[in-house]
Amino acid sequence: MSKPIRVIAYGLGAIGRAAAELVLKKSNMQLVGAVDLNPQYVGQDLGSVLGVGRQLGVKITDKPVVLFAQAQADVVIHCTSSSFVTVYPQLVEIVRAGLHCVTSCEEAMFPRYRNAQLAGELDDLCIKKSCAVVGTGVNPGFVMDTLALALTAACQNLEAVRVLRVVDAATRREALQRKVGVGISEAEFQQLAKDQKIRHVGLSESLVFLADALGWNLAEVDESIAPVIADKRIKTPYFTAQPGSVAGVKQVATGLWNGKEVLRLELQMYAGAANPRDEIVIVGNPPLKLVLDGGTPGDLATPALLVNSLPSLLDARAGLHTMRTLGLPQIAL
Amino acid sequence: MSKPIRVIAYGLGAIGRAAAELVLKKSNMQLVGAVDLNPQYVGQDLGSVLGVGRQLGVKITDKPVVLFAQAQADVVIHCTSSSFVTVYPQLVEIVRAGLHCVTSCEEAMFPRYRNAQLAGELDDLCIKKSCAVVGTGVNPGFVMDTLALALTAACQNLEAVRVLRVVDAATRREALQRKVGVGISEAEFQQLAKDQKIRHVGLSESLVFLADALGWNLAEVDESIAPVIADKRIKTPYFTAQPGSVAGVKQVATGLWNGKEVLRLELQMYAGAANPRDEIVIVGNPPLKLVLDGGTPGDLATPALLVNSLPSLLDARAGLHTMRTLGLPQIAL
Question: Are residues B29 and B134 in the same domain?
Fold first, then answer.
């Protein structure tokens, strides 16, 4: 067994905590630091915050740069925000300290799309400091992009890729149900959508990741969001959607190339969704249809993807990566 | 667009011809040579043998070493035999000439399993000559191994992987139907199986590839083969299986680790198989079930995988690769 990977957990929300817990279970990884700005966490032992029933000897700090200088870590698992502009200064601090980083920041899955200049600067800094950074998760990061791309390897030619992810929000955590608007009115939904408060971040990133990999220089990327209206009363452990109110959200991103819709990613997340699944349809030769029955639960799979990417990240060339350049994904041992 | 990849087609059986035809369709690849020992092919233009309706200016030769010295090629697509021992001297000639190589040789998908010493020597030679070699195809090479491994990236832990591939042999080419024994008697089947004349090569290679990647030091690898008996008359374009005769084959490889069956790969190829599909079941957290409806047709997908692996192969470090070390697979542009 090689030397354990020394990990800092940065951001202790639901995903960050789940990733930290998973690190504890991996024989070849070690948690050596934790960062969070929440004053209720700062100074506490990470074990208390994770609720793992034991002290870990890792005190949570709100001073990441000090920690980076002291912890002799290899890599940071970073889970603070969906916005690349927001996380950019945090990522810069991580890389300046000579640390690799995997981030759950959705826009960081393909940061060149919205922030080409910042992405370029981060890439330069990574190369200068011999560090590798990647953004991943289940979505964006795996089921609607990386897995779809891998599937094209079995095709002689390709006309279009369509991915559908259907999540029954009723089976997910409260925060997700709130995020998709379970039980609110259609008017409220429209206002929240307008304010970008109801929105899955990363659908366009997945789409542009695919287009880039497939050499499709898209003329247009379109993304739309609409409520799914409950046609009957739907009760979840946290909310109730009355008939006519919002059960959740349907979000669609499409890409046009040479006048044809070559990419379509559709995400349905609503309470009571029938037949939850991830479905990848390849229009090509041969045509292929992949279904993940029941779908891939993000609460488990996103922490898995973050932690599982660490070995390849440490092995990768320096730079700002995508899941395409990081090698074949697999579970970390 | 970068400089076209200059390709030699080595072995012009069904798969080799299909791969060569696909190279012709790729904008960034160029066929610059062809090797086959069939005296009816030698000296002919490759275009005539492929039946593409035009001359390609590529004369088929039975003298590969001479061709390698003259053709200024980058890479060889090699499709001659299932046996690593048989192809080994051919691969050595290719690498000695400084050429990269992708081979459809099933045992070369994980050659360390049956031929650790030869695999080690080929790896050394690759490094010395700065060449990369990999064995791939749809199976072994993709649906029962690489794709299953990639799927584990979404898991926090893993207890077992089970893959089932069901092929309706009636829809496949004559050679495959003959290979699986459509229409022969059970006694004939048993004799042919005993002589290893009925056998899908590579199932154990897929299994050991997975075990190696997952760090499962298998105590035992078992592989069994049995006929599927027709329960009614099945007529294909080439053969007829009477009730009680053989419709095809069922082959199973299993791997035990710590006393448990952690890996099970099952391949059913018979005429009249209902619900043809590729199915990957991950026993773990989360559990996952992936289905490729209708399955992945090998006649199309194996040439695709060979050709699609060329860009990553040319980009890879020198050595004898597996699909695990070659990066994320995808269609070549």
Answer: yes
Please name the residue that has the structure tokens 């591939």: B165
| CATH number, domain containing residue A103 | 3.40.50.720
Of B290, B300, B331, the CB nearest to A153: B331
Asked if B86 has any chain A CB less than 8 Å from its own CB, the reply is no
Range of the domain at B124: 5-138+301-326
Q: Is the pLDDT of residue B37 over 70?
A: yes
Q: Mean pLDDT in chain B?
A: 96
Strand arrangement, sheet containing B319-320: B60-61, B29-35, B5-10, B75-78, B100-103, B132-135, B319-320
pLDDT band at B124 (very low <50, low <70, confident <90, very high): very high
Counting the structural domains of chain A, the total is: 2
CB contact under 8 A, A291 and B291: yes
Residues B119 and B161 in one domain: no
How far is the C-alpha of B3 from the C-alpha of B7, rounded, in Å? 12
Same domain, B228 and B275: yes
With an 8 Å Cβ cutoff, is A1 touching chain B?
no
The beta-carbon neighbor of B328 closest among A149, A155, A293 is: A149
Residues from chain A that touch B288, judged by Cβ atoms under 8 A, are 292, 296
Q: Which pLDDT does position A150 carry in this prediction?
A: 98
Residue type for position B3: K
Verdict on whether the full-model pTM lies above 0.95: yes
Do residues B269 and B290 make contact, with C-beta atoms less than 8 angstroms apart?
no
**Model pLDDT, residue A199:** 86
Whether A153 and chain B come into contact, CB under 8 Å, resolves to: yes
Q: Are residues A199 and A308 in the same domain?
A: no
Residues of chain A with pLDDT under 50: none
For residue B192, give the CATH number of its domain.
Answer: 3.30.360
Angle of helix B298-308 relative to helix B14-25, nearest 10 degrees?
60
In chain A, the residue whose alpha carbon lies closest to the alpha carbon of B18 is: A156
Write b or e for each residue in A87-125: b if 16 or more Cβ atoms lie within 10 A of its Cβ, otherwise e.
Answer: bbebbebbbebebbbbbbbbbbbbbbbebeebbeebbeb
Task: Mean pLDDT check: name the lowest of A283-292, A303-312, B1-10, B158-167.
Answer: B1-10
- ipTM confidence: 0.97
Q: Tell me the per-residue pLDDT of A294-322, one tens digit each, with 9 for 90 and over.
A: 999 999 999 999 999 999 999 999 999 99
- Which residues partner with A280 through β-bridges? A163, A290
B196 shares a domain with B62: no
Is A293 in Cβ contact with B154 (below 8 Å)?
no
Q: Which residue of B has its CA nearest to A146?
A: B328
Contacts with B, A 176-235, CB within 8 Å: 213-215
B158–A331 C-beta distance less than 8 A: yes
